Amino acid sequence: MTRRVPFNAVFGAVLIALFVGCSAVSQTPSVPPKHPEELPAGRVDCLECHSDVSTGALKPYGTLRHSRVFIDSHGTYARQGQNLCSACHAPAFCQTCHARKDEMKPNVKMGDRPDRMAPHRGDYIVKHQIDGRLDPGSCFRCHGNKSNAQCRQCHK
Amino acid sequence: MARPTTVVSSGKRLLPVLLAISLLLPLLLAGTSRAADYSVSSKTYLRYYKQEFAGGNKNTYAPLYEYLSADAANLGGTPIAFHFYGWGRVDLSDPSGGTSGKESGDIGSAYLEYLHPQGNAQMKLGRFFLTEGVAVETLDGAFFKVTTPIGIGISGYGGSPVEYSILDNTSVGDSLYGGRLFFSRSGVTEIGVSYLKDKNPFEGKDRELYGGDLWLRLFGPVELTAQASYNQATQGMASQRYALRVVPGSRFDFSGGYEAYSYKDLFQTTLHPAFAVPSIDNTDKVQTIFAVVDWEIFPGLTLELVAKNIRHDNVSTGNANRGEAGFRYAFNEKKDVFGLSAAVVTADWEENEYQEYRGFVTWSPSKLRLTLDALTQQYKKEIDGKKNAVQVVASAGYKVSSSLALSGDLTYTQSPRYEQDYAGMVRATLELGTTTGGKK
Question: Whose CB among A104, B261, B357, B434 lies 3.0–4.6 Å from A137's, allowing a Cys bridge?
Answer without folding.
Answer: B261
